[in-house]
Design goal:
By secondary structure, the chain is mainly α. It contains two helices and no strands.
């Protein structure tokens, strides 16, 4: 079995993890955007 099949089977058995992974993805993307914004505003 490949890793994709293992993840697919796991998510099929634990459907709440789909929401958890999506939420983590959204939070991490927002944190990355905020970090990029802070970095670009610093300086002369």
């Amino acid at each position: 079995m490949s890793d994709k099949d293992n993840m697919k089977d796991y998510l099929a058995e634990h459907p709440r993890m789909i929401g958890v992974l999506f939420t983590l993805f959204v939070l991490l993307s927002q944190a990355g955007t905020a970090a990029a914004g802070i970095h670009s505003q610093m300086g002369p």
